[in-house]
Amino acid sequence: MKRMRVVECIASLHERAAGTTVYFQRMMELLPGSDIEAIVLSTGAPAPDVPGQYFATDFSGCPWVAAMRPSRALREAMLMEARQADLIHSHGMWLLPNVYPGHAAVAANVPLVISPHGMLGREALRFSAFKKMAFWAVFQRRAAAAATCWHATSEKEAEELRAFGIDAPIAIMPIGVDFPALAGRSVRRQEVLFLGRLHPIKGIDALLRVWPGVAAQYPDWTLRIVGPRDDAAERYRARAEAALIPNLVFDDAVYGQEKWNCYRSAALFVLPTQNENFGVTISEALAAETPVICSDGAPWEGLRENRAGWWIPQTDDALRSALCAAIALPDSERRSMGRRGREWMLRDFSWEAVVAQTRDLYAWIGRGAPRPDFVYA
């Protein structure tokens, strides 16, 4: 049987710290094989680790139009590739490269999978709400109607898709996690780590509100915030300096082994997010044997069940209490929690399992194989 030809479209891969980028890069590394040929279409500068076709965007002289990343070249390439494809998979929402796959799927009569990657979540929709609803009405609704199946990374995201009005089948497949080598006993600093985009939805504001009280009680501990040094990060830095928040360090984004070193050197990881469809940094921290404090804005209730951290309400009091409780534990207990977290990740979140699910999903949609049991009508 000839290889299934799948067109994978993503608006860009320039946000290296974003969970969507991490997922897409790993999938394009592991998914293609003897049975699947993946054709990557995107805009912007080529990602060195993801071979594909990358196209320039148009209307550079008109910023508000250019922000939607229009690309006539990408649209034409999508239509051409769709004619030879067995399946189209679109990643993300709210940009024109997320619209082109729907139009191409209809024109070529090819099945379409959409992975919104949390962009239809309740809290995510609150940001730039008017622009998103206008974009949905003018561009995205018709393109989304072409979807044969949607991909959610958790039950929580699947529920949000249904609440938004999506009635097509939904495949629930998590994001896989890499596992750093554990060379001997790690040296854990008295440090609480936040790593990721410095966006209001991540709960940075709550973290900055509660940390002064925690630092006053535990003056030997440091909060380290690591993320891309963009305008949002600079605003948070300036605010923290003006408020004289103690024991607080901001660092630029890190990648590769340096990222894993961050996780492995911290005693705790914290993500007080308002909304996550998955939360890649949670699984990465656990894979690095670092216990986690996470709000119930992310679907990680398993932190409690697996005794690997704290899953807390989205309140300042709950965040402050969890931080103090975690810091007060003996180092040996935090290490035990970290080991249990890594064992959980190895058991349930390997990339091999996620890739196998994706292959089964593609075979069902593109080849008429039996419907997988993780797809819900």
Order of helices and strands: EHEEHHEHEHHEHEEHEHEHEHEHEHHHE
Q: What's the CATH topology name of the largest domain?
A: Rossmann fold
Flag low-confidence runs.
Answer: none
Name given to the CATH architecture of the largest domain: 3-Layer(aba) Sandwich
Question: How are the strands ordered across the major sheet?
Answer: 3-2-1-4-5-6-7-14
Strand content: 15-25%
Can you tell me the overall shape? Answer: globular
Number of domains: 2
Bin the helical content. 40-55%
Q: Report the biggest beta sheet as strand number plus sense, adding barrel if it closes.
A: 8 strands, mixed
What is the CATH class designation of the largest domain?
Alpha Beta
Number of helices: 15
Q: How many beta strands in the DSSP annotation?
A: 14
Report the structural category. alpha/beta
What would the average pLDDT be, to the nearest integer?
Answer: 93
CATH superfamily of the largest domain: Glycogen Phosphorylase B
Determine the N-to-C terminus distance. Answer: 28 Å
Provide the gyration radius in Å. 21 Å
